[in-house]
Design goal:
Helix content is 32%, strand content 45%. It is of the alpha+beta class.
Protein backbone atom coordinates (compact mmCIF):
# COMPACT_ATOMS: atom_id res chain seq x y z
CA UNK A 1 0.00 0.00 0.00
CA UNK A 2 2.83 2.45 0.70
CA UNK A 3 4.01 2.46 -2.95
CA UNK A 4 0.47 3.40 -3.95
CA UNK A 5 0.69 6.29 -1.45
CA UNK A 6 3.93 7.46 -3.07
CA UNK A 7 2.28 7.21 -6.50
CA UNK A 8 -0.73 9.19 -5.24
CA UNK A 9 1.46 12.00 -3.87
CA UNK A 10 3.68 12.05 -6.97
CA UNK A 11 0.60 12.36 -9.18
CA UNK A 12 -0.93 15.05 -6.97
CA UNK A 13 2.26 17.12 -7.02
CA UNK A 14 2.73 16.62 -10.77
CA UNK A 15 -0.85 17.75 -11.40
CA UNK A 16 -0.34 20.86 -9.27
CA UNK A 17 2.90 21.73 -11.07
CA UNK A 18 1.23 21.28 -14.46
CA UNK A 19 -2.13 22.97 -13.82
CA UNK A 20 -1.71 25.10 -10.69
CA UNK A 21 -4.64 23.22 -9.16
CA UNK A 22 -4.61 20.25 -6.81
CA UNK A 23 -6.35 17.00 -7.71
CA UNK A 24 -9.33 17.70 -5.49
CA UNK A 25 -10.52 14.09 -5.79
CA UNK A 26 -7.27 12.95 -4.14
CA UNK A 27 -7.85 15.15 -1.08
CA UNK A 28 -10.17 13.96 1.67
CA UNK A 29 -13.07 16.34 2.24
CA UNK A 30 -11.82 16.92 5.82
CA UNK A 31 -8.15 17.42 4.89
CA UNK A 32 -5.98 19.44 7.26
CA UNK A 33 -3.09 21.52 5.95
CA UNK A 34 -0.47 22.82 8.37
CA UNK A 35 2.13 25.29 7.10
CA UNK A 36 5.06 25.22 9.52
CA UNK A 37 6.76 27.94 7.47
CA UNK A 38 4.18 30.48 8.70
CA UNK A 39 4.17 31.35 12.41
CA UNK A 40 0.75 30.86 14.04
CA UNK A 41 -0.88 29.87 10.75
CA UNK A 42 -3.04 27.23 12.39
CA UNK A 43 -4.80 24.51 10.44
CA UNK A 44 -6.51 24.94 7.10
CA UNK A 45 -9.40 22.46 7.19
CA UNK A 46 -11.46 20.92 4.41
CA UNK A 47 -11.35 21.70 0.72
CA UNK A 48 -12.24 25.36 1.42
CA UNK A 49 -9.40 25.66 3.94
CA UNK A 50 -6.96 23.97 1.59
CA UNK A 51 -7.98 26.41 -1.13
CA UNK A 52 -7.38 29.31 1.28
CA UNK A 53 -3.90 27.95 2.05
CA UNK A 54 -3.11 27.89 -1.68
CA UNK A 55 -4.46 31.43 -2.08
CA UNK A 56 -2.27 32.64 0.79
CA UNK A 57 0.71 30.97 -0.89
CA UNK A 58 -0.12 32.67 -4.18
CA UNK A 59 -0.42 36.06 -2.46
CA UNK A 60 3.08 35.73 -0.97
CA UNK A 61 4.89 35.05 -4.26
CA UNK A 62 4.96 37.04 -7.49
CA UNK A 63 6.15 33.88 -9.19
CA UNK A 64 7.30 30.46 -8.10
CA UNK A 65 8.26 27.05 -9.39
CA UNK A 66 8.76 23.73 -7.69
CA UNK A 67 10.82 20.80 -8.91
CA UNK A 68 10.47 17.45 -7.12
CA UNK A 69 13.73 15.91 -5.92
CA UNK A 70 12.62 12.84 -3.97
CA UNK A 71 9.64 10.96 -2.59
CA UNK A 72 10.20 8.98 0.60
CA UNK A 73 7.90 6.19 1.73
CA UNK A 74 6.99 6.26 5.43
CA UNK A 75 3.99 3.89 5.41
CA UNK A 76 0.84 5.99 5.72
CA UNK A 77 3.01 9.06 5.24
CA UNK A 78 4.98 10.20 2.22
CA UNK A 79 7.63 12.90 2.29
CA UNK A 80 8.05 14.88 -0.90
CA UNK A 81 11.20 16.97 -1.10
CA UNK A 82 11.41 19.65 -3.76
CA UNK A 83 13.41 22.65 -4.87
CA UNK A 84 11.41 25.86 -4.71
CA UNK A 85 12.38 29.00 -6.59
CA UNK A 86 10.27 32.08 -5.95
CA UNK A 87 10.19 35.85 -5.96
CA UNK A 88 8.50 37.68 -3.09
CA UNK A 89 5.45 39.59 -4.26
CA UNK A 90 6.00 42.65 -2.08
CA UNK A 91 9.77 42.58 -1.73
CA UNK A 92 10.90 41.31 -5.13
CA UNK A 93 13.48 39.22 -3.29
CA UNK A 94 14.40 35.97 -5.05
CA UNK A 95 14.35 32.80 -2.93
CA UNK A 96 15.70 29.36 -3.70
CA UNK A 97 15.41 26.63 -1.10
CA UNK A 98 14.68 23.00 -0.50
CA UNK A 99 11.21 22.48 1.01
CA UNK A 100 9.34 19.34 1.99
CA UNK A 101 5.79 18.19 2.64
CA UNK A 102 4.69 15.30 4.82
CA UNK A 103 1.53 13.86 3.30
CA UNK A 104 -0.65 11.56 5.42
CA UNK A 105 -2.70 9.17 3.31
CA UNK A 106 -5.66 7.10 4.43
CA UNK A 107 -7.93 5.03 2.22
CA UNK A 108 -6.38 6.41 -0.95
CA UNK A 109 -6.84 10.10 -0.08
CA UNK A 110 -4.65 12.74 1.53
CA UNK A 111 -5.98 13.43 5.03
CA UNK A 112 -3.30 15.84 6.19
CA UNK A 113 -0.25 17.65 4.93
CA UNK A 114 2.47 19.41 6.85
CA UNK A 115 4.59 21.90 4.92
CA UNK A 116 8.19 22.56 6.03
CA UNK A 117 10.97 24.65 4.55
CA UNK A 118 13.42 22.17 6.06
CA UNK A 119 13.92 18.61 4.83
CA UNK A 120 15.23 17.41 8.20
CA UNK A 121 12.14 18.63 10.06
CA UNK A 122 9.90 16.86 7.57
CA UNK A 123 11.83 13.60 7.89
CA UNK A 124 11.67 13.81 11.68
CA UNK A 125 7.92 14.51 11.58
CA UNK A 126 7.41 11.46 9.36
CA UNK A 127 9.54 9.26 11.61
CA UNK A 128 12.29 8.74 9.03
CA UNK A 129 15.84 8.52 10.34
CA UNK A 130 18.72 9.43 8.07
Amino acid sequence: MSQSNVDLVRGLLDAFITTGEPSWDSLHQDIEAHDHDVVDAGAYTGHAGFGRWLENWDIAWAQYSIAPEEFLDAGERVVSVFRMKATGRGSGVPVERQDAIVWEVRDGKVMRLDYYNDRGQALEAAGIEE
